[in-house]
């Protein structure tokens, strides 16, 4: 008797869990599919509403329209450029520093490490940072995307912990063979660190691609430095408030250009901005676990 | 005798210095690989700290720092008299509070339930998909969420009207009082799977023999969760909770900036957003710096307090 009751409870429990999980799947995926469907739907028709995950009148016009808007093509290029350059420089810098700070005999090891750790807790804040970049002449320059965030202390610690866990004897024997520290770093440590380097590179790349705030704060007066995320942010903040009040914001330059609605434009840009992340996602979810586990084991 | 000692001392100091230089020469590659970044961190992370002096001045850009007019605590006085500041403070605390309650419990519940899924392939699929939104930018997320909550064709209003028989769509994004809840819902949509990862890792660390013992004692699955899994992950939970207290003042402004608009401003404006509006958009640099400084000081105090608390409870330091 008790047995059957327990079993019945088990079944109900299992079913409820599966229902909850199915709900999680649906609410996670639906927005992506819905936005994709609207972006592929004919604009005027989309304004009638009722599109879920399949477009009602299929068209690629919305995408054609956003790439006619020439600033967006340029913004896409800037996004790619900052992601590529930023990731390369950041990853190399982070690894070099992490290697130097992993060497027990290095005289400034403790001092430099402390100087970097402190920055995780203390920062100047919005306006002092802004003024500092202004004094450095970086406001409105491309390098404002790369230099201020060159090294992330957390990433550096992840790489350093990984190097700490490598067998030191390899480095030692290379040293006996007469290799200098830089050669050891390049020929022995770097190849062994590939998993953690991939992790850090992916983190940096995602951060670079997704960033819009630095454009807003430091380069908003330079249209030639606009990025894809920033363009999307502008369309979003211009239309979302107005959308509840009126269907098309007549002041939007996009609305005047053609009969493609700001909503369709926004959905198409959203997809274009999200696709690169979705493409690298399989790698992301493989490598970030490495980063997380190393990061949590050691500080 | 005395001079001999003196001589001996200078010789040892000199040899110490020369040894130091010899080590530097030996480690020239390590220096080349770290000193540039040390200079970088000083320029980009420590120099801005000097900018805090602006909070005590009537800072005018372009003038050298020693020619600026010093005004003492005037900006702080203005700040504490400003009603807008208290609204921003209230919003910051309200959203932080939702973050450390709903935002703390939801990932735990999700992790506990996901752990009960027996079909491994399904479990893996759900987990992999659940943290997908973490990697897209807040701009994209806000764009999607705005679309879902929109009054024309948004799925939430569709469901409310068709299933629950509402007559008119709810204008979520332009209802001021709804903002805090939209904020936390959006945050959960984007981050719940990501936050749950750490809990799932902690759950795997729970001793399997305890489950066996609980089964022998006649515990069902719910009671196993309650008496074995939860106590097993409590140390991790306490550390995370305390850490969240440390970040109470730092909800930032990205999400509020993107999800908010001028209609809901009174509920979406956080201290960061307030500092941004005054500091950069209105070019009141000194006032903006004072706001940021107030926030930093409170944050540092909170982090230290949280760290002490964690130490006292004996779960180890956070910092």
Question: Could you please describe the fold and organization of this structure?
Answer:
Chain A has one domain: Orthogonal Bundle (MetI-like fold), CATH 1.10.3720.10. Helices cover 73% and strands 0% of the residues of chain A. Chain A has 14 helices and no strands. The longest helix of chain A is centred in the N-terminal third of the chain and has 38 residues. Chain A is globular and about 75 Å long. The termini of chain A are far apart. About 3% of the residues of chain A have low confidence. In chain B, strands 1-2 form a two-stranded antiparallel sheet. Chain B is 71% helix and 1% strand. With 319 residues, chain B is an all-alpha fold. Chains A and B meet through helix 1, helix 4, helix 5, helix 6 and helix 9 of A and helix 1, helix 2, helix 3, helix 5 and helix 6 of B.
Defining key terms:
heterodimer, A: 299 residues, mainly alpha, MetI-like fold, B: 319 residues, 2 domains, two-stranded antiparallel sheet, 15 helices, 1% strand, extended
């Amino acid at each position: 008797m008790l047995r059957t009751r327990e079993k019945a409870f088990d079944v109900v429990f299992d079913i409820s869990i599966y229902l909850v999980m199915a709900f999680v799947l649906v609410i996670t995926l639906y927005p992506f599919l819905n936005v994709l469907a609207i972006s592929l739907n004919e604009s005027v028709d989309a304004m009638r509403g009722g599109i879920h995950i399949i477009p009602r009148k299929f068209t690629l016009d919305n995408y054609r329209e956003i790439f006619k808007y020439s600033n967006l093509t340029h913004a896409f290029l800037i996004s790619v450029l900052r992601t590529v350059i930023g990731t390369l420089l950041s990853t190399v810098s982070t690894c070099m520093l992490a290697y130097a700070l992993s060497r027990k005999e290095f005289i400034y090891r403790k001092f430099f490490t402390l100087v970097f750790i402190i920055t995780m807790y203390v920062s100047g804040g919005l306006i002092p940072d802004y003024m500092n970049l202004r004094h450095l002449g970086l406001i409105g320059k491309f390098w404002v995307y790369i230099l201020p965030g060159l090294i992330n202390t957390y990433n550096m610690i992840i790489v350093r912990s990984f190097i700490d866990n490598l067998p030191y004897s390899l480095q030692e024997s290379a040293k006996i063979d007469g290799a200098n520290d830089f050669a050891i770093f390049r020929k022995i440590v770097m190849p062994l660190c590939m998993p953690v380097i991939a992790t850090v590179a992916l983190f940096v790349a995602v951060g670079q691609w997704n960033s819009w705030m630095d454009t807003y704060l430091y380069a908003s007066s330079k249209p030639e430095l606009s990025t894809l995320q920033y363009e999307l942010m502008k369309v979003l903040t211009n239309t979302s408030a107005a959308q509840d009040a009126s269907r098309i914001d007549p002041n939007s330059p996009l609305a005047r250009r053609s009969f493609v609605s700001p909503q369709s434009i926004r959905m198409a840009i959203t997809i274009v901005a999200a696709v690169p992340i979705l493409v690298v996602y399989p790698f992301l979810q493989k490598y970030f676990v490495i980063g997380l586990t190393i990061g949590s084991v050691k500080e | 005798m005395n001079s001999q000692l003196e001589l001996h001392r200078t010789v040892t100091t000199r040899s110490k210095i020369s040894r130091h230089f010899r080590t530097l020469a030996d480690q020239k590659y390590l220096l080349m690989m770290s000193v540039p970044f040390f200079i970088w961190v000083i320029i980009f992370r420590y120099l801005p700290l000097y900018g805090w002096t602006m909070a005590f001045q009537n800072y005018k850009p372009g003038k050298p720092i020693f020619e600026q007019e010093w005004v003492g605590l005037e900006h702080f006085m203005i700040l504490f008299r400003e009603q807008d500041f208290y609204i921003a403070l209230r919003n910051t605390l309200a959203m932080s509070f939702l973050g450390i309650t709903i935002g703390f419990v939801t990932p735990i519940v999700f992790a506990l339930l996901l752990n009960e899924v027996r079909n491994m392939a399904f479990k893996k699929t759900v987990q992999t998909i659940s943290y997908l939104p973490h990697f897209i930018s807040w701009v994209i997320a806000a764009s999607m969420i705005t679309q879902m909550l929109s009054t024309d064709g948004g799925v939430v209003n569709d469901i409310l009207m068709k299933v629950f028989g509402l007559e008119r769509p709810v204008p979520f994004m332009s209802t001021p009082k709804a903002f805090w809840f939209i904020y936390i819902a959006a945050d959960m949509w984007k981050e719940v799977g990501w936050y749950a990862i750490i809990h799932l890792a902690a759950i795997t660390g729970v001793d399997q023999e305890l489950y066996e013992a609980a089964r022998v004692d006649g515990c069902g699955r719910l009671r196993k969760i309650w008496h074995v899994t939860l106590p097993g992950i409590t140390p991790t939970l306490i550390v995370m909770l305390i850490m969240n207290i440390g970040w109470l003042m730092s909800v930032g402004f990205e999400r509020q900036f993107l999800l908010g608009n001028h209609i809901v401003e009174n509920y979406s404006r956080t201290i960061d957003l307030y500092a941004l509006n005054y500091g950069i958009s209105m070019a009141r640099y000194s006032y903006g710096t004072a706001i940021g400084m107030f926030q930093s000081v409170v944050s540092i105090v909170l982090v230290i307090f949280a760290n002490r608390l964690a130490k006292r409870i004996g779960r180890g330091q956070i910092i």
